[in-house]
Write a structure and sequence with these properties.
- This protein is an alpha/beta fold and 193 residues long.
- The protein contains six helices and eight strands, in the order βαβαβαβββαβαβα.
- The chain has a six-stranded parallel sheet, with no helix packed on it. A two-stranded antiparallel sheet has the order 5-6.
- Helix 3 runs parallel beside helix 4 (119-129).
- The N and C termini lie far apart (36 Å).
């Protein structure tokens, strides 16, 4: 797993995660934003955590980033602007699904694990920084926490495996691959032109 320097990192099965969740209710979003990343392929763990999070800070407006982000930069910028108009001033908690579509990939290598922030990601993060809301970006692949996202987010929670014995056993069996590293989501590639 990558080493993170700038954000607080919790494993989903960490005892410190409960303390973190308990303190979220006291966040003051009057002068800033808060960005939380939920990364990893353990969906059941993310769902349970999100339920606890809703109990602490309230409901979330859910937005699927695949409906907003495309390989066309200008169209993505327009969609992001429209999304923030739609959110308005009343929604304080935003949950972005499928955040993996924000990450770019270096395509010169068959199984590259190097990610970079796309212009679309940078534009979205600029909008996030300029608001006073609680944001959650859900990623299926922890490798998609690029340096730009790492600088902007305050916290990341890694959901990389199940909690129970049988869950862990089943999880490990599902992780066996023959051909090396592959990413769970297709990435945007630059528009040629």
């Amino acid at each position: 797993m990558k080493k993170f320097d700038r954000i607080n990192i919790f494993k989903s099965n960490s005892g410190d995660l409960k303390n973190f969740t308990d303190n979220l209710g006291s966040l003051n979003l009057e002068s800033s934003y808060y960005l939380l990343i939920l990364a990893g392929r353990y969906k059941a763990g993310k769902t349970r955590f999100l339920k606890k999070l809703k109990e602490k800070i309230g409901e979330f407006e859910t937005i699927n980033l695949r409906d907003v982000i495309s390989s066309d930069e200008e169209a993505s910028y327009k969609n992001i602007d429209e999304m923030f108009k739609y959110i308005g001033e009343t929604e304080k908690n935003i949950y972005f699904q499928n955040g993996d579509c924000l990450a770019g990939e270096y395509t010169g290598y068959t199984n590259s694990s190097v990610r970079y922030a796309t212009p679309q990601e940078k534009y979205l993060l600029k909008k996030i920084i300029g608001s006073e809301r609680f944001y959650v970006i859900e990623l299926a692949d922890t490798e998609n926490i690029d340096k730009t996202l790492e600088r902007i987010a305050q916290t990341a929670i890694i959901f990389d495996e199940a909690d129970s014995f049988f869950g862990k056993l089943f999880w490990k069996l599902r992780q066996i691959t023959v051909n090396g590293h592959t990413f769970t989501n297709k990435r945007m590639r630059p528009v040629e032109g």
